[in-house]
Amino acid sequence: MEDYESFYEASIAPEIRQLEIERRRTVKRVFALGAVILVAILVFVFHTQISAAVGVGDGFVRIAALLAGFGAVASIFHLQSKMRRKLKTALVEPTCRFLGLDYSLDAGRFPLPRFVDVKILPVHDHVHLQDHISGAHAGVDFELCEAALTKRVERSDGKGGTKTENQSVFQGLLLIYRFPKPFTARTLVLPDRSWLGNRIAGFRHGERVRLEDPRFERIYEVFSDDQVEARYLLTPGFMECLTDLADHLGASGALSFAFEAQNLLIAFHSKQKHFEGGSLFTPLETPERAKALLQELKLIYELIERLKLTDRSHL
């Protein structure tokens, strides 16, 4: 931490201070746009009286209010997105560089098809990836990104018709670690939704593998196209690592694993955004921002250590 604090003061703090000036201006603009939205709502609600008072068409008043309101909302989202990108460039990228990690805001090169192919992600129609991080720790290569997946669903509009909505089906981290034990088959370790539940969810690869650890069986279900190799991979020690990890993260039901092409793929459904650097509405210079980011990045190394991916003795 002492090394990082020195690096922060020399390489990050000057740009953060400049960015803080822009953040304050942005917050003022957001509040002004918020006032526009409030006025637009009031105009839309009282459009009849306003139309009569100013002598313009009722439809014109309503359309003007809608355009002003939606325009202000779009502008707020744009301002927030712009500041978020600048903060990532100023804080997240150099912090990753300090830790010896490669960082890119754009995650277009992340091998998402691997996760889709092994079917440890829910069925989806649209994907948004960002924060591509890669590197190595204790000889274990890894890469990850943040993913948001949505699916188009049709719902009743209450009037006998239907409307299409985009529903979030996954928000979290996708991680790939080089696994230290050789294998040729494909094995999935999924949250226990019951055999039927996982089949309905689309996890149809391989046969169900029954294991003798009752604690592990309460949390996970295993499917593989090679029963012998699945047991070779999921030793008692490694199953204990997986159950301890779920307990540690408080994420029972949120972790899915796949052994594929000498890699361990992990889908961590965390329901929150990562590597954001904090809120737009708090000062950028507070040390809590950097500490929270380091805590998030610590998870990358913690998974290697908790799963003992550098230790072959338990495998």
TrEMBL record:
It holds the Pfam family DUF3137. It comes from the Bacteria. This is DUF3137 domain-containing protein. The chain crosses the membrane at residues 30-47, 59-79. InterPro entries: DUF3137. Keywords: Membrane, Transmembrane, Transmembrane helix.
